[in-house]
Amino acid sequence: MNAAQLNQALRDPAVRTIALDADHRVLDGLDLDAVRADPKPIIGAGATTFVHMELWRECGLAGYHGEGAIPPGPRRLTGQTWVTGRAEGVLLGGSLGPLRAMIGAGLPSLDGAILLLTGERTQGLGQVDRQLTHLIRAGAFAGVRAVAVGLFTGFDGLVDRDWTLTDVLTDHLCALGVPVLADLPIGAGHPPVPIGLPAVLDATGATLSID
Length: 211
Known about the structure:
Elements: H1 3-11, E1 18-19, H2 32-37, E2 42-44, H3 49-59, E3 63-65, E4 75-78, E5 80-83, E6 86-95, H4 96-101, E7 114-120, H5 125-137, E8 146-153, H6 165-173, E9 180-182, E10 193-195, E11 198-202, E12 207-210
Parallel strand pairs: 1-2, 2-3, 6-7, 7-8, 8-9
Antiparallel strand pairs: 3-10, 4-12, 5-9, 6-11, 11-12
Helix pairs in contact: 5-6
């Protein structure tokens, strides 16, 4: 979907949700006035993170990270505890690659947020390592209250110099000093979950609850 098609959907009062597969190229042409006048959630994963973060920063619009129909009611997901603890905050984030690409180009502040991270394999573990290193060194994760790690598809069985995906992620994320809950069923190919809404991450109890 290009910017013109997206804007047409944003302006159409008959459209109530938008399932989107779009990237950074649509950002500069977004009709933000239409979003503010008639907010409607956008559903998508992967590169749709660009749009989710832009609309959160500019309009405070919540979206849905994932694919398919929006499940009814509140969400309570179970994961694997990496660092114990409990935190409350707005769930923000999405796919790792787009988040890293938005540094210096409109990435909203994550201060006070519960950070959501998912990913899809485009290259190797070295790229994941570089993306996380860049985000952390740029201060993008400053003030994050907890980390919710969703699915990183395509990395099963991949080993690079004796490191697995879990090794790379835990090396960076467990050093942040906040609760970390991993293996959550969030990401491409899974039902969408709300982002931009209040959430409670209880890593000790291994649950993420989104209001």
